Amino acid sequence: MRMITHTITVLLTIMTTDPILTLTQWLSPAFPVGAFTYSHGLEDLVATDVVTNADTFENWLTDTLSFGAGRNDTILLVAAYNADVADLQEIDDLARALAPSAERLLETDQQGGAFARTIAAIHNLDLAALTYPVAVGHAARLQDLPLRDTARLFLHAFAANLTSAATRLVPLGQTEAQTVLLKTAPLCQQIADKALTETINDIASTTFASDIASMNHETQYSRLFRS
To answer: Is 128 exposed, middle or buried (0-12, 13-18, 19+ CB in 10 A)?
Structure first.
């Protein structure tokens, strides 16, 4: 009887939780996907004096969001949200193929697997291991969470994680770092909203320097991050 009561309580809590609070939990630093261990190639850019202060970090972050993985991952998330289960594997295969380096593939694969395992456990869902944006999009669909908010918060969490990495690597002061993140918030909203109208055929990337940095990071002598 106690087990049944506990189960009912958990289900009622899930059913009555505000969708934004659910997404905030999923995409917070406390959610166990290991996002804090990845820098997306930023560690190499700091080591080679490409990113040296708040201004150069802001330029890199803006480019990554607008022309690189930030935009592409959001499009993949939207595609996964709208896809039938039978089409998920094709989207996931594309997400893996888009990774320009071994570490970037590790980044999306490991975070996605950890996300899927945790979501499956806490929401009692049958969720296979997928790349990170695909897993988030599919889980949001299964939980009937609003797509626009999911896309916006996902992209902002991506920017926030890179800001946290920059705070430690550059290093930036906390106020400097948060100022940069605040300035990118409207851009995250703009990119996410546009992604709602785009398809995987719109995916493209021109952040070649960042991609090369992620390759260089694989053999970097001293490293704090996994990518």
So the answer is: middle
CA–CA dist 79, 119 (Å, integer): 19
User: Measured in whole angstroms, how far is the alpha carbon of residue 201 from the centre of its chain?
Assistant: 20
Q: What is the pLDDT of residue 16?
A: 53
19-217 is classed in which CATH architecture? Orthogonal Bundle (1.10)
pLDDT, one tens digit per residue, over 178-204 is: 999 999 999 999 999 999 999 999 999
pTM of the model: 0.91
- pLDDT value, residue 191: 98
Q: Do the Cβ atoms of 152 and 188 come closer than 8 Å?
A: yes
| Residue ranges of domains in the chain | 19-217
Taken in order 52, 57, 59, 60, the sign of the CA dihedral is positive
